[in-house]
Amino acid sequence: MTTPWTEDHIPDQTGRVAIVTGSNSGIGWEAARALANKGATVIMACRSIDKATPAADQINALKPAGKVVVMALDLGDLASVRAFATDFRQNYQRLDLLINNAGVAHPPYGKTAQGFEQQFGINHLGHFALTGLLLDRLGATPGARIVTVSSISHRSGIIHFDDLNLERNYKPSRGYAQSKLANLLFTYELQRRLVTAGQSTLAVAAHPGWSATNALRHSSFMRRLNPMFAQPPKMGVLPTLYAATAPDVRGGDFFGPSILELRGYPKKVDASASSHDEAVARRLWAISEELTQVKYALAGSGI
């Protein structure tokens, strides 16, 4: 990119439908705002309707060319994921953008409704299930993209197949890194399966670098450093928006900030070698389908 890419470069989104998970604040809110401003109908998929409604009102007050719609989605409860997918399918026949943005970072140990360690359960399994349940809407929409938000923390991640819930040795950073590596393994494996199935939908990934968002609310150390190092969410969202809308994006691309991947305008970045391990990705995929009971229907992909 010869000139800095900003949200002003987003193409017209009129007539397009987008889902942004966790869009009541931070990166997700900025993504919903920017896409609605360009004409999209944006589903703000949030756990708390009470928090999402005033967030949507803030966007509507800006008089966007498109609109925002609040829908309930708790990624920590697979029953809620299924209910959201059913509700969406009843009301929308197309899905142009699925932005898997919501997540929890560095919390005390806790489990989801189905008993998964919450970072793995929310950040990976919830989005894995959501994407699978909406795959036909994406496949029926020309130019559809799935953008999953990872983190530079994926580089220290390991998929602990013998203890996915980290019950024997839980550290918040360990759980977060595992979940963010899972996000990339999922993206790359999904893209391979989409290609094998002859689907035009793109699976891509992004990360916001070091951004001052509520995702760091559990880390007092990181919050103390925010004023010195973190960039505002309006900048942190740019890699996600680039992945979602830029015309030169290809399946399996990964975007992050340009300056040491911590801050700055978006650019294509490299992921760790671990994220490209196809054997690990296939194993994680099989386990994810088993744990979520969501089987991906991709004709011709051998699954």
From TrEMBL:
KW Oxidoreductase (keyword) present: yes
Keywords attached to this entry: Oxidoreductase
Pfam families: adh_short (PF00106)
The organism's place on the tree of life at top rank: Bacteria
SUPFAM superfamilies per record: NAD(P)-binding Rossmann-fold domains
Classification via PANTHER family: PHOSPHATIDYLINOSITOL-GLYCAN BIOSYNTHESIS CLASS F PROTEIN, PHOSPHATIDYLINOSITOL-GLYCAN BIOSYNTHESIS CLASS F PROTEIN-RELATED
The family this protein is said to belong to: Belongs to the short-chain dehydrogenases/reductases (SDR) family.
Name the record gives this protein: Oxidoreductase
Gene source species: Paenibacillus terreus
Lineage of source species: Bacteria, Bacillati, Bacillota, Bacilli, Bacillales
